[in-house]
Amino acid sequence: MPRESGDAHLPAHWIKNARGDMAMARIDLPEDATYEQLCFHAQQAAEKSLKALLTHLGIDFPYTHNIGLLVSLLPSDMQSVSALSEAVILTPFAVLTRYPGRMDPVTQDQYAEAVQTASAVVDWVSAFIMKKP
Fold it and tell me: What count of Cα atoms within 13 Å lies in the side-chain half-sphere of residue 125?
C-alpha cells in the first residue's frame, strides 16, 4: 500500500534506490532469468539517479520512465553531459522488455552496454550531488 513519505524529496533516498537497482543489474544471470530483466534494473538505476539529480536541483519532474524527458528537464549544460545524454538508450528497458514479444531478446552485449551506461549515470550523479560547494 502506498504511503505518504518525505523521502521522495531527499536525493540520498533516490541514490540509495538507484544503487540497489545497479546491484540487481550486475548480478550473474540467474537460471531461468533473462537479460531483459537485468536491463530493467539498469534502466531503473539511471532513472532514479536522474530523479535524485532533479530533486537536488529543486526541479519538479513527472513520474515517468522516459529518460530523455528527465534529461530534458535538466539545465542545458547538464543535458550535454555524455553520461546523461547517452542514457536515453535505456528507456525501452523500462517497459518494452518486461512484456514478452514487445522487443527482440536482449543480447549479452546489449546487456553489458546497458549496465555500463547506467553505471556512468549513477556515478556522475552521485559525484555531482556529493560535490562540496
Answer: 32
